[in-house]
Amino acid sequence: MGAHEDMLVTKVCELYDKISKLESLSPSPEVNTLFTQLVSICTPPSSIDVSKLSPKVQEIRAKLIRLCGEAEGLLEAHFSSILASFESPMDHLHIFPYNSNYLKLSRLEFNILSQYTSKTPKSLAFVGSGPLPLTSITLALNHLKFTNFHNYDIDTGANSMALGLVSSHPDLSKRMFFHNANIMDVSHRLRDYDVVFLAALVGMSTREKAKVVKHLAKHMAPGALLMLRSAHGSRAFLYPVVEPEEVHGFDVLSVYHPTDDVINSVMVARKHWTEPGPGLMPVDTSGLMAIDQGLSPIILLNKCSEVQGFNPLGSMMEEIAVEEQAS
């Protein structure tokens, strides 16, 4: 590593040491300051390859990602409670500190998906939606105005908070559904979704993420789209990295690495049109281009990417429901 990368790793490790000693990760001036510093250090574009770091730093990175995930959950729960105190929560989403980031990320994801699709997604699933499901809300309000959103989370309390935000909204209350379930326990229902979003922090290690992706590949409908969030360069200290060759059972269509304040990389893949079998050849990702220059996505397609998908047209269905399911 060069001097810049060495300095970056040193700063990250120093912040990890301070964060790991906090009594609580709930929002507070000290917690907010430390995580703001961490994000500001890790956000600028960097060529660092975290897979080549020393075992000690790799261990620190793994622990830091889990701490970031816990803090993010507590932050979202905190603001979900505040938003729920308003008569119309959707009118006050701007009070969440990272709302603009979600607006940009959702627009980016929608634009990328739209390049592969031409028919309506009647149903979309978001796995790991949490207490403040801003991706689903933003897509439903701004981009997919006639699609039904099925949000999955293992945390019953998170789902209850999320339901409280949308239950008074005349439109979202008809299109938002919340399922209390571990996605690894969901099988046949996954075939109902045209698109599945997998939150960055569902499966925080490569092994955990691979298990979830394998499960989705087994049960999603052939031809359905999978949207994954990853991280690139120094941003991999904040979120897990997903490599194209790790997404088995899918044809990876595009990878995009933002260079602005949108932290997550975006990967879109299509479930194989033929069910996995003994003679199925692995997908060749050697020609896939990963964009890291802040440009509009350059999409390199394979044969399966020419199949039609959706556009934001369709019909509204059903009423909001919370489905209790043992995890």
UniProtKB/TrEMBL annotation:
<dbReference type="InterPro" id="IPR029063">
    <property type="entry name" value="SAM-dependent_MTases_sf"/>
</dbReference>
<dbReference type="InterPro" id="IPR004298">
    <property type="entry name" value="Nicotian_synth"/>
</dbReference>
<comment type="similarity">
    <text>Belongs to the nicotianamine synthase (NAS)-like family.</text>
</comment>
<dbReference type="Pfam" id="PF03059">
    <property type="entry name" value="NAS"/>
</dbReference>
<protein>
    <recommendedName>
        <fullName>Nicotianamine synthase</fullName>
        <ecNumber>2.5.1.43</ecNumber>
    </recommendedName>
</protein>
<keyword id="KW-0808">Transferase</keyword>
<dbReference type="GO" id="GO:0030410">
    <property type="term" value="F:nicotianamine synthase activity"/>
</dbReference>
<dbReference type="GO" id="GO:0030418">
    <property type="term" value="P:nicotianamine biosynthetic process"/>
</dbReference>
<keyword id="KW-0949">S-adenosyl-L-methionine</keyword>
<comment type="function">
    <text>Synthesizes nicotianamine, a polyamine which serves as a sensor for the physiological iron status within the plant, and/or might be involved in the transport of iron.</text>
</comment>
